[in-house]
Specification:
This protein is an alpha/beta fold. Helices cover 46% and strands 12% of the residues. The strands form two sheets. Strands 3-2-1-4-5-6-7 form a seven-stranded parallel β-sheet, with helices on both faces. The chain has a six-stranded parallel β-sheet with strand order 10-9-8-11-12-13, with helices on both faces.
């Protein structure tokens, strides 16, 4: 990590017992977005990492107890304070349980910090897409709210986590965050992806088990033996329309015959996506999957010929490292944090150039040597990302923020 982002000040690799014994205040984590695809994955990943590196550490969780218990198998380990207010608005500020968090280290997993919290505060910033009229929200009022809250978060937080250096750079440039107040804490593949990867790289017997698991998943879901995969919301910055137009062109030219599988689309987005597929005339060649349980996602990735990630804006790009973790080649846009995250394990294209995307898709589909190179580079690249390491780094910051503000108070 670049030393500009607090690496010199923060020691992320402290021994577990020492880190645990010196956190001077209780820690509270706002877990209302635990179900969300991006921020929720980050919350669940940190909890997974803490179970490994510091099993004694049990932060209090804010959120809907029923949702938390549904999504966290070990939810009984945690004290859960009910907090059901919707995110990004006045209601969450008025309903915030400030009496129950007084004096604690509060970790807000995005810029919508609790303004009424009385105690040390840390915040994770995933991206600044909400500031962009084209890619975020077209509402001037919502963009104004996002900018005001981002500035408040930067001003009030004792420390800021960014999920990529690209996000950290943007925070410094657009919001004026002090660089020595920011640490880059990456996302990572979950344990279920790593388990499938371990099966692939272990004995022949376990590799056969992996192949059988993927084949059974295909039978259960009706997926073909080969397919292209894209994972993400149907929102402008995800650039799915450009991918669909390129896919249509490639099929019309006869350059590819593989179907496209789309995963991660929210229920409220499906109607608009269905209309788009019908207008393009590709509906019979595109499969839009229902939401899959987390332990099934690695099988979806593992069975794909390649993952295509066409976003024009990303704070991280988790599907990239998830694909790399299970040995699936990646074709990704050359935009925002994506090259930083993908490393050498992807074929890159200009997200505004459909012809460039088409060339890379044809290359990965038709050239086995290209696929093998991407698989090998992807496996090397994904070693950089670990929830254990990220969780330990966050613990170290909790410790230092709690101690610093206790000394000052």
């Amino acid at each position: 990590m670049d030393s500009r982002y607090g690496e010199k000040r923060l020691s992320a690799a402290e021994p577990r017992r020492e880190a645990m014994s010196t956190i001077a205040r209780p820690v509270v984590l706002d877990a209302r977005m635990v179900r969300h695809s991006g921020i929720g994955t980050h919350i669940r990943g940190l909890l997974e990492g803490w179970r490994d590196v510091a099993p004694e550490f049990r932060p209090t969780l804010l959120g809907d107890p029923a949702v938390i218990r549904e999504l966290l198998p070990d939810a009984a380990r945690y004290t859960i304070v009910p907090f059901r207010a919707p995110v990004y608005g006045l209601r969450e500020q008025l309903a915030f349980p400030s009496r129950k968090t007084r004096g604690t280290v509060l970790h807000c997993p995005h810029y919508n910090i609790a303004l009424r919290h009385n105690g040390p505060l840390v915040v994770t910033i995933h991206d600044l897409i909400h500031l962009d009229a084209r890619w975020g929200t077209r509402s001037p009022a919502r963009r104004l709210y996002a900018r005001w809250m981002l500035r408040a978060a930067v001003r009030r937080a004792g420390h800021i986590f960014a999920v990529s250096q690209a996000t950290a750079d943007e925070l410094a440039a657009r919001i004026g965050a002090a660089r020595d107040k920011i640490s880059v804490v990456y996302n990572a593949p979950s344990r279920s992806f790593l388990d499938l990867r371990a099966a692939d790289t272990a004995s022949e017997g376990r590799a056969a088990d992996r192949s059988e698991a993927i084949e059974q998943f295909r039978r259960e879901t009706g997926l073909p033996a080969e397919y292209l995969l894209t994972v993400g919301l149907y929102k402008p910055h995800k650039n799915l329309d450009m991918l669909l137009e390129t896919f249509k062109l490639l099929r019309e030219r006869g350059e590819i015959a593989l179907p496209l599988v789309v995963a991660g689309v929210q229920e409220r987005e499906r109607t608009a996506l269905g209309r788009r597929l019908a207008r393009l005339g590709v509906a019979e060649h595109v499969r839009v999957l229902d939401r899959l349980p987390g332990d099934r996602l690695p099988l979806l990735y593992g069975g794909a010929t390649a993952l295509i990630h066409p976003s024009v804006r990303e704070g991280f790009g988790l599907p990239i490292v998830e694909a790399q973790a299970v040995g699936t080649p990646v074709v990704a846009s050359r935009a925002s944090a994506i090259p930083e995250v993908a490393g050498k394990g992807a074929l890159f294209f200009d997200p505004y150039d459909g012809a460039d995307l088409a060339r890379q898709v044809v290359a990965v589909v038709k050239d086995a040597a290209v696929r093998e190179r991407l698989i090998a580079e992807g496996r090397r690249n994904v070693e950089r990302f670990s929830w254990r390491e990220s969780a330990q780094k966050v613990l170290s910051v909790y410790e230092q923020v709690a101690r610093l503000q206790k000394d000052e108070g």
